[in-house]
Every structure is written in C-alpha cells, then in structure tokens.
Amino acid sequence: MGNRGLKLRSAGALLALGALVAGCSSIKDHRGYIVDQTLVDSVQPGVDNRQSVEHTLGRPTFESQFGAKDWYYVSQTVKTPAFRKPRTDQQTVFRVQFDANDNVLDVQRRGMEQVARISPNGDTTPTLGRHRSLLEDLFGNIGAVGTGGMGGGQAPQGPGPNGS
Q1: What is the DSSP letter of 98?
Q2: Strand 71-80 vs strand 104-110: parallel, antiparallel, or unpaired?
Q3: Which residues of the chain fall below pLDDT 70?
Q4: Least packed by Cβ within 10 Å: which of 25, 49, 136, 151?
C-alpha cells in the first residue's frame, strides 16, 4: 500500500504543479480587424472606389473625423502576462485615402512604430499651487468669509464701481 500511496502523492503533486504553471501563462488576444493580406493587396489606387473597398475589406474600424474621410482598419495582438498589464505585441493599421470622387487615392500600411508607450508619473498628476490637507480644505475659509466688506469696514473711496 505504501508504493501506491507514493504514486498517488506524486501524481497529485504533478497535477498541482501543472495547474500552477498553466495559471501563470500569458493570454494572447486579437483585437480589431482580422487581416487577410490577399484582400488588402487587391485594393488598388485609381481602380477601386469607396463602395468596392467596403465590399472587399468590410466596414472600417473607424473613419477620420476631420478633413478627408479616410478609412482606417486597425488590427492588434495583445499579450497579457500573468499578473501584469496588457501589452501590444503586434499592430497593423491600414489607411485607405479617398479623393473627392470617392476613388481610392492611396493605401498605406503602418505597424508597431505607431504604438506609443507612455509611463504616467505615479498615481497623481502634478499641479501648480499649494497642497492642502482635507482639514484645510474643509475649514480653511473659516474667519476669511465676510471680512472684506460686511459692514464693519470702510467704504471704498475714489473712482470705481462703489466709490464716487
């Protein structure tokens, strides 16, 4: 019975180790447009128009809001390692430019060079001015309210909105 108990404990430990390692693996996620290179290569400037691009590639991920109404197809692969923040692993952006007659003017492809990695400065944004505590915010104006013209002071003299 001792040999069998040892095998069961070994199998249980191996199973627990496998579950632990599987829980620490990273997750790979695709977001946005699914790129079919053959379809993207079939869009030709001077040949296609807005309608043919929509039939070939589908609706864009987004459309530019200012200036010419360019179409953008965005595809991203994001990896999320265990206990960490998601990180863009691959990115492709297709920009389809149209002329005034809705004909394709140009097709551009961009990659990871368009991904901006920013590092915020801690959990707070630095601002100008004094740093006040909660008590100063709550009680800081006591005694300051009504001191400058609540009847006890002198009336303004000279030219001005209340003076002569």
Answers
A1: E
A2: unpaired
A3: 1-2, 16-24, 120-122, 126, 145-164
A4: 151
- For residue 28, the one-letter residue type is K
Give whole-number Cα distances, 99 to 48, 69, 96, 105, in Å: 11, 9, 10, 6
Note whether 114 and 91 are within 8 A (CB): yes
- Give the CATH number of the domain where residue 101 resides: 3.30.1450
If you count DSSP H runs as helices and E runs as strands, how many of each does the chain have, helices first? 4, 5
* Residue % of the chain over a pLDDT of 70: 77
Residue 48 burial (10 A CB sphere; 0-12, 13-18, 19+): buried
Q: Where are the alpha helices (DSSP H) in the chain?
A: 2-23, 37-42, 50-57, 134-139
Q: What is the pLDDT of residues 55-88, one digit of tens each?
A: 999 999 999 988 888 999 999 999 988 888 888 8
145 is a domain residue: no
CA–CA separation, 86 and 78 (whole Å): 6
Q: What is the largest CA-CA distance in the chain?
A: 110
Structural domain range at position 54: 25-113
